[in-house]
Amino acid sequence: FRMRGGQRCASDTPRSLAVQLMRFHRHDWVMILFLLASVGILNIIDPFDRFVGKSMLDDLMYPLKENTVPFWTIPILAVIVPSIAICIYYCYQRDVNELHHALLGLLFSVLITAVVTDAVKDAVGRPRPDFFWRCFPDGISKFDNITGRVECHGDVHVIREGHKSFPSGHTSWSFSGLGFLSLYLAAKIEMFDHKGHATKLCVVFLPLLVAILVGISRVDDYWHHWQDVFAGALLGLTMATLCYRQFFPAPYDSNGVGAYTHFQVLINGHSNQAELADGWDIENGPYFRVGGTDTAVNRHVQDGGLSNWQRGNKQVLDRQRHLLEEHQREAIGRNFETISSLERRVHVGRAVTLDNERIDCRWNAQRFTIGSISTEKHKIGKISSIKRWFSI
């Protein structure tokens, strides 16, 4: 494990990495706790007591039924099931960084959705389709003589719950969690690989189908109007997409298989030493660091295939190597130089090792120079005693 800025290192084990990730993202985890507390508080607050008159009851006299999908099953569908899928993928890839980001993104998606849903419920106070039977369980209606407002004589908690129709919490929770899972699966199985495997579509749309059925059950049970379910689905999908994109590229992106931390390229001009090292940057994941001089540009290039628990993931490694080459071509203006002392052509700017020794790579006149630098502006210094070259 390697931290930026010359900080102390620790063993690059999944456990130590998980601890470091938790520390680095401690503010995010504190926010998770804050969101949990907010959900609890919003459920205690009484919703807005919206006016309900006699003329409005015609649309609110649907029978009072039990939930087809009980509330306790929603956290299982929205959080537990996606978490299990993410953990299964971790068992295959052994990437603690990706596991952490996926779980963090999932929790943010569900909890932000829950806070927004409960806040809007309390603020709007829309009566449910079965409000009449909540207000008058014996079927005998009573109204204020002056305003015509209903005078409920049912259970206080049942009536209070009857003012929480908009938006549907079951639906928003389901779409936020299962929608996040669909995006995650679409990226991992490469649904947009242009190979015509329709089976991948079935895998990706299965979580969404479950969320849709949950939403339909809310209308069938007369607990919500169709507008409530539509708004809940839209809210859940929006939050799922935003939270997913916070940590991962779009599933249709060529680099969508991995988290952003695997592909970021950082510019840092504060290092005085040239360095070529594989390790793990706590902010940016596994990397190769190609250093420079005081006035040089240090480039931190991600390569997740370098970690011990990632060597078997050829898919991620190939995509990250492809991205590395793209950044190299951009860095040298898509020009390639030939080192005269070598029989083979190499890409200047690519990190190169010589007999397991570090080679100084400097940025000079918008080009990478390898080895000792000539006094002339664009010439490449010669490297002696070359026994073996291999490029990353």
UniProtKB/TrEMBL annotation:
PANTHER family: LIPID PHOSPHATE PHOSPHATASE, RE23632P
Pfam families for the chain: PAP2
One GO location term (cellular component): membrane
Membrane topology: Multi-pass membrane protein
Family per record: Belongs to the PA-phosphatase related phosphoesterase family.
Protein name, per record: Phosphatidic acid phosphatase type 2/haloperoxidase domain-containing protein
Main location group: membrane
Domain of life, per lineage: Eukaryota
Annotated ranges, domain Phosphatidic acid phosphatase type 2/haloperoxidase: 101-244
Transmembrane segments: 29-48, 68-92, 99-120, 172-189, 201-219, 225-244
SUPFAM superfamilies linked to this entry: Acid phosphatase/Vanadium-dependent haloperoxidase (SSF48317)
UniProt-listed GO biological process terms: phospholipid dephosphorylation; phospholipid metabolic process
Alphabetical keyword list: Hydrolase, Membrane, Transmembrane, Transmembrane helix
SMART domains, per the entry: acidPPc
Location of the protein in the cell: Membrane
GO MF annotation, one: phosphatidate phosphatase activity
